[in-house]
């Protein structure tokens, strides 16, 4: 299966596909790679470099993965191995998609597809192998959130999978189809596809259950089965930790958990999950930010230039030493010398710049966190002041109500005409007080009103007023006094509001409004 690898080396590579991904496994693979280079086994060395790249990818070290893929490509180029080049082009294209570089990703994926079609035409490759090339496009468009394009390539892969004996590609197809069905609102059909794909992954690639369990969690969240959704998200994180697989995907899982906890009113858990997502995002994805993308572009240009230099030098040396017995040995040594120089220089150059950008990003992140905390404290303080002023307004209105009752009876020296004038003035002042309260509340909680109107545009002015009082934690008794209503009327009004907000009985109205 692996060219001229020894049986022991063959066993090592096969075991790596089922072991946990770790730094130790990369060291073992590097030793194997050095051994294969000494034996001049180019094919074995290329395959080992691809396995090293895969291991680094699962650990979230995309730069190291990327470097090893380029090294593998240089060796495949030198040995004219089109089959391996096609696979490496595919993997490089997938890495560009991790960095959200769509054009570059599609460029390499198309190169891989074209090369595979060429091999199929030459009868050097079974046409069923094209399914894998199309599935690479599906995964890329899924990550780029372009599910319409993903569906198109998924349909193309289905054509070649009909007669394919490849259970791996069929399992990936079921998973990707499940993702698309979920996006279309076909949640039960989606769950069925995920169950189908899980059977193969449980046995062959259990680490991939990180993604499967995450999307199953999405389905159950859409079905409003929140406890199941939480269970699958947590299982996805546990699987990632257990197999050291897809570590770079865990920030997205924590973001999903945070959103779920907000829905069910678990604010503390939501905050902790969001913080974990931010910390992991900083750990794994610094090189994906817009500020750091130019670093990758510099590396691309550097690698391409070195590749051209190596090819030119190779042709020159071959012409000069065509009649000499040492030509193959010298060519290999020159190639490896350039590769070692390239890797060392690239690592030093990129790491130094990334360290600088990482420090700057950390400073900006802390500054944003402080500003956000300060804004939240200011809003909370203003809302407390506003609540206090409303309580005073309630007391004032109670006193005015007593005065109105006395004046209405017409007792004392004030005649009835003057009493009516005073009553009208009091009513106007009460309305003005309420309007002033609403103006202050809106100015303090602009985002709340904006989100409320966007989610529920059919709410009346009175409904919005009740939402504001509930957000300020006023009891039904206090709301009744403020709105001059009976307690029973307030309960009725709250019930009507719950219906307009489409809230089930098990959802707390205060927690729901507080989450907006």
Which short descriptors sum up this protein?
single chain, 516 residues, disordered N terminus
List the helices and strands and how they pair.
Blueprint: H1 7-16, H2 23-38, H3 42-58, H4 62-78, H5 82-98, H6 102-121, H7 130-143, H8 147-161, H9 167-183, H10 187-204, H11 209-222, H12 226-243, H13 250-263, H14 267-284, H15 293-320, H16 327-409, H17 416-444, H18 446-455, H19 461-471, H20 476-482, H21 487-500, H22 509-514
What does this structure look like?
- With 516 residues, the chain is an all-alpha fold.
- Helices cover 80% and strands 0% of the residues.
- It is built from 22 helices and no strands.
- The chain has helices spanning 7-16, 23-38, 42-58, 62-78, 82-98, 102-121, 130-143, 147-161, 167-183, 187-204, 209-222, 226-243, 250-263, 267-284, 293-320, 327-409, 416-444, 446-455, 461-471, 476-482, 487-500, 509-514.
- It is elongated, with a radius of gyration of 33 Å.
- Residues 1-20 and 287-295 have low confidence and may be disordered.
């Amino acid at each position: 299966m692996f060219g001229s690898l020894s049986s022991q080396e063959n066993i090592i590579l096969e075991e790596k596909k089922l072991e946990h991904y770790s730094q130790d496994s990369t060291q073992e693979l590097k030793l194997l790679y050095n051994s294969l280079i000494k034996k001049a086994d180019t094919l074995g060395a290329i395959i080992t470099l691809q396995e090293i790249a895969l291991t680094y990818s699962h650990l979230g070290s995309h730069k190291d993965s990327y470097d090893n893929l380029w090294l593998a490509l240089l060796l495949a180029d030198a040995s004219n191995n089109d089959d391996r080049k096609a696979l490496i082009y595919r993997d490089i294209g997938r890495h560009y998609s991790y960095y959200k570089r769509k054009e570059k990703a599609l460029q390499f994926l198309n190169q891989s597809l074209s090369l595979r079609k060429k091999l199929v035409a030459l009868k050097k490759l079974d046409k069923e192998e094209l399914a894998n090339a199309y599935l690479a496009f599906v995964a890329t468009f899924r990550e780029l959130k372009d599910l319409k394009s993903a569906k198109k390539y998924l349909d193309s892969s289905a054509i070649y999978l009909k007669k394919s004996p490849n259970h791996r590609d069929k399992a990936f197809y079921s998973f990707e189809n499940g993702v698309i069905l979920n996006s279309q609102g076909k949640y039960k059909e989606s769950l069925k596809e995920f169950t189908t794909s899980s059977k193969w992954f449980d046995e062959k690639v259990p680490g991939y259950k990180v993604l499967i369990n995450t999307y199953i969690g999405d389905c159950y969240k859409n079905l409003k089965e929140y406890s199941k959704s939480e269970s699958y998200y947590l299982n996805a994180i546990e699987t990632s930790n257990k197999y050291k697989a897809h570590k770079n995907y865990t920030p997205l899982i924590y973001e999903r958990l945070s959103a779920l906890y907000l829905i069910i009113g678990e604010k503390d858990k939501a905050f902790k999950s969001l913080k974990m997502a931010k910390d992991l995002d900083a750990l794994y994805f610094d090189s994906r930010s817009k500020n750091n993308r130019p670093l990758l572009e510099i590396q691309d240009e550097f690698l391409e230039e070195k590749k051209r230099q190596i090819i030119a030098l190779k042709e020159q040396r071959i012409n000069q030493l065509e009649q000499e017995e040492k030509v193959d040995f010298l060519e290999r040594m020159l190639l490896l010398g350039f590769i070692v120089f390239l890797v060392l220089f690239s690592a030093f150059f990129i790491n130094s710049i990334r360290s600088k950008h990482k420090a700057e990003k950390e400073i900006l992140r802390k500054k944003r966190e402080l500003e956000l905390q300060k804004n939240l404290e200011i809003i909370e303080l203003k809302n407390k002041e506003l609540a206090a002023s409303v309580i005073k307004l309630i007391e004032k209105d109670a006193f005015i109500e007593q005065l109105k009752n006395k004046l209405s009876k017409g007792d004392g020296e004030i005649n009835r005409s003057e009493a009516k004038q005073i009553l009208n003035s009091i009513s106007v002042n009460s309305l003005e007080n309420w309007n002033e309260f609403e103006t202050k509340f809106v100015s303090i909680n602009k985002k709340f009103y904006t989100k409320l109107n966007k989610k529920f545009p059919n709410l009346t002015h009175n409904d919005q007023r009740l939402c504001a009082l509930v957000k300020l934690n006023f009891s039904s008794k206090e709301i009744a006094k403020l709105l001059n209503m009976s307690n029973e009327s307030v309960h009725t009004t709250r019930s009507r509001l719950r219906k307009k907000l489409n809230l089930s009985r098990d959802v707390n109205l205060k927690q729901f409004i507080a989450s907006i």
